[in-house]
Amino acid sequence: MDAVFRSILLIVMVAPFVIGGCTGCPSSSFPLDDPEPELDSLEAFLEHRAQPLNDVDDLGPLVSLAGDRRLILLGEASHGTREFYDWRAELSLAIAEGPGLDFVGIEGDWHAARAADRFVMGEGDEEDLEQLLVEAFDRWPQWMWANEEFAQFLRQVRRFNEANQERPIRIYGVDMHAFFTSLQRLQERVRRDHPDRANEFHANLQCLSRFAPEGRAYLQALRSQRSQSCEEGVRQAAAMIAELYPDDSTEHLSARKHMRTIVSGESQFRGPAEGDGDQHWNARVHHFYDVAKALLDHHGPDARGAVWAHNTHIGDARATTMAERNRHNIGQISRENLGEEAVLSIGFSTAEGQVIAGAQWGAPLEVMEVPPAPKGSLDAMLRGADQSSYFLQFRKSDRELPYWTELPGQLGIGVVYDPTEYALRNFAPTNPAARYDALIFIDQTSPLNPL
């Protein structure tokens, strides 16, 4: 679907929701401030709230819900499900063509996503895209972003950008797993751009760089007292980068984000050695938010960005048992810092299907079964609606409904998955009305198509 046709479609589709209320809207769509009957049962809730989701025409209420919110968090119940990628792509493009979108941040490394960003900004040939993704996303699990669905999204974004050069969609990585790669690339950049400061910069990072390429080696050295903390050297290196790359250009921004990745990586492994067991998780999710907020600042006061990441990251941690473990996520942090009215969090759910994952970290990908959701889980409960694919919008008052406060378990599959322990390990107690602003349910799902 080309950009012109999409624009016409979105104007027709969204206008009833943003101009003069909802006159003429389908009966399944409603402004969330309208009165409604008592929703004293799950059946009543689903009957009144479930809005069908069959094609892009049905996205209007969610596009309208985006409104002027600055950060759009788009989740997934697994990393290896085709429909989640497809609908995030459709919704991101619909928001771009409606209220506007400046960037999409993915749960991937900054340096790898730079190749995707250059592509959507017009560099390279389209026929080379698949090879570009395979080479750029070379860290396991490569298939998270080197897949046909993400490639198709990038092609759509490139066409959108060609038609909307005044406000293109940029692609960035908000994750930090490969922080030693960022360290190496930043050393090379300083050596190229500022040869007179290269030795000083290298000396500041020497403490940390000797543990490359595995952060756990740094953690083990700290625990065994074979090494002192590298925190001070990293801090001095960060001050140098802020001095050497201060302006608003993409290249200077990239240097600062590489440095932010190094800072987060050092902190992630130092924390557990100092007795903060939750730091390994929290350093990463605070990095997600810090990068997303820096990108909003970079794109200006009216900027809007989307982040694609697992439900575990984008749904408010306080609405799950993560809070009991003192674990935060970008869903919680962004609401606390930007305000709930500035953030839109949309989760995903499925009840059955297939997924790609690895049996253990680093293992070859496999197509694995997602068994029917167990009785009492959120995903099984959502099968009670008349539609097989639909979405729910939540009001704040929904958070106190008894069937949500009971915290039914919601499916969550990562890059490592063992179907034999499905019911034990893959369901997180969840109040969905507090965790998300909206939830997309797709009854039957299928695996990603890796390149």
Question: What do these coordinates show?
Answer:
By secondary structure, the protein is α/β, with parallel strands linked by helices. The chain folds into two domains: 3-175 and 304-445, EreA/ChaN-like  fold (3-Layer(aba) Sandwich), CATH 3.40.1660.10; 179-299, de novo design (two linked rop proteins). The protein has 19 helices and eleven strands. The model is unreliable at 1-31 (pLDDT under 50).
Shape assignment: globular
> Could you estimate the helical fraction of the residues in percent?
40-55%
- What is the second-level CATH architecture of the largest domain? 3-Layer(aba) Sandwich
Strand content: 5-15%
- Structural class of the helices, strands and pairings? alpha/beta
**Total number of β-strand segments?**
11
**Major beta-sheet overview:** 9 strands, mixed
How many discrete structural domains?
2
